[in-house]
Design a protein that fits this description.
The longest helix is centred in the first third of the chain and has 19 residues. It is built from 14 helices and 8 strands. The protein binds iron/sulfur cluster.
C-alpha cells in the first residue's frame, strides 16, 4: 500500500534553501575536485565516486590527473595505461567507459565536454544523474541528480514509499527531485544533497537531529527513516571459487590478459582454473599453496586459491596467452587489487 505523503508542495519553499544554507556552513568544501569547475576534473571525480568512498578516491584522483592532465591526454593513452592507473579502484567498466568517453569527447566534440545534462548523458559511462551533476557543477544547469545517496534523502523527506525497483516509481521520484530544484545556487544545492546523504542521512543510524531538513521530513516524523528507500529487487549473491597459477621465473611473473568481457575485463591476472585438478592438468609440477583469498564483488563472493611455482633455468613457456612481467614493472600494469596485494607480499609491486 502506498502512503506517499502529499508534501512536496509544502516542502518546496523550504527544502532547497535549507540544503544550500547547510552546505555552506556544514558541507564539504575541501575535496580536491571542488577546487575546479573544469568539466574534465568534475567528470573524472564523479565517475570515480560512483560506488567508491571519498576516502578511497582521494588517493587516486590526483595521481590520475598527474598522469592524464586533460581529456586529450586520456584519449590518446593506451588502454593498459588507463587500466593500470585505475587498478585497485574496482568496477573496471568505469575505467573502460572513461577511456571511451574521452575519445568520443576528442573525436566528436573537439575536446570540449557538451554543456547540457541531456548531451552529457549521451556519452559512454555517463548516466542521467552523473550528467546532471556535471552540468550543475560546471554550467549551473538546473538538472536533478538522483544517485543512491540522494534517493535515500528524498524518499525519506518525502515519505516516498513506492517500490523503486519499478521504473514508473523511479520516474516519479525523478519528477519530485526536479520539482524541488532551486532557481539558483545549483552548485551548493547539488553538493549539499550529496553531502547530506553521505554524512547525515546515512543508510543506517541517520543523524536526524543534525539534519537541516528535519522539520519537514516525513520519515523522521514517522520515526522510521531506515524503512526508506523501498526497493524490493535485492541482489542475489552467489559464490565462486577458482585456482590461480602463480608462475615465477627469474624475478618475473606470468600474466595473462583477462577476457574482454566480464569481471576484471581489460586487466591482467594469473591463469585461472575451475579446480585444482584442472590447474594440475595444465601444470603438473610441484606447487606451493598460498593462503586462500576472499574477495567480495557486487554479485558474488569469490574464493581464490593461489598455487605458486618458482622456476629456474631456461625460460619456460607456460600454456595459453600471456607474458613474463618483471615484478618491479608491475606498477605499470592493470592488476586486480587482490592480485596486486598477493604479489606485493613477495616484494614491492
Ligand atoms: Fe534523513 Fe533524518 Fe534528515 Fe530525514 S531528518 S532527511 S531521515 S537525516
Amino acid at each position: 500500500m502506498s502512503r506517499r505523503l502529499p508534501c512536496t508542495a509544502a516542502l518546496r519553499p523550504h527544502f532547497a534553501p535549507a540544503v544550500i544554507a547547510w552546505q555552506r556552513t556544514h558541507g564539504r568544501h575541501d575535496l580536491p575536485w571542488q577546487r575546479s569547475r573544469e568539466p574534465y576534473h568534475v567528470w573524472l571525480s564523479e565517475i570515480m565516486l560512483q560506488q567508491t568512498q571519498v576516502s578511497t578516491v582521494l588517493a587516486y584522483y590526483e595521481r590520475f590527473l598527474q598522469r592524464f592532465p586533460d581529456v586529450r591526454a586520456l584519449a590518446r593513452a593506451g588502454s593498459d595505461e588507463v587500466m593500470a592507473a585505475w587498478s585497485g579502484l574496482g568496477y573496471y567498466s568505469r575505467a573502460r567507459n572513461l577511456h571511451r568517453c574521452a575519445q568520443v569527447v576528442v573525436d566528436e566534440h573537439g575536446g570540449q565536454f557538451p554543456r547540457t545534462a541531456q548531451a552529457l548523458a549521451e556519452l559512454p559511462g555517463i548516466g542521467r544523474s552523473t550528467a546532471a551533476a556535471i552540468a550543475a557543477f560546471c554550467f549551473g544547469e538546473r538538472a536533478a541528480i538522483l544517485d543512491g545517496n540522494v534517493k535515500r534523502v528524498l524518499t525519506r523527506v518525502l515519505g516516498f514509499d513506492e517500490d523503486l525497483a519499478q521504473a514508473r516509481h523511479e520516474r516519479a521520484l525523478w519528477e519530485e527531485a526536479t520539482s524541488l530544484l532551486p532557481e539558483q545556487d545549483m552548485t551548493a544545492y547539488t553538493q549539499g544533497l550529496m553531502d547530506l546523504g553521505a554524512t547525515v542521512c546515512t543508510a543506517r543510524s541517520p543523524r536526524c537531529s543534525h539534519c537541516p531538513v528535519q522539520a519537514w521530513c516525513a520519515a523522521r516524523a514517522e520515526g522510521r527513516p531506515e524503512a526508506y528507500p523501498v526497493h524490493t529487487r535485492k541482489l542475489r549473491r552467489s559464490r565462486r571459487e577458482h585456482w590461480w597459477l602463480w608462475l615465477e621465473h627469474e624475478g618475473r611473473v606470468w600474466l595473462q590478459p583477462r577476457p574482454a568481457h566480464g569481471v576484471w575485463a581489460g586487466l591482467h591476472s594469473l591463469p585461472e582454473y575451475d579446480s585444482e585438478a584442472a590447474l594440475q592438468a595444465d601444470w603438473p609440477g610441484p606447487l606451493i599453496p598460498w593462503p586462500s583469498i576472499s574477495h567480495a564483488l557486487t554479485h558474488f563472493d569469490w574464493l581464490l586459491h593461489p598455487r605458486q611455482c618458482v622456476l629456474h633455468g631456461p625460460e619456460p613457456r607456460p600454456p595459453g596467452p600471456g607474458q613474463w612481467v618483471a615484478y618491479e614493472a608491475l606498477a605499470d600494469w592493470g592488476l586486480p587489487a587482490p592480485l596486486r596485494k598477493l604479489l606485493a607480499s613477495r616484494g614491492p609491486v
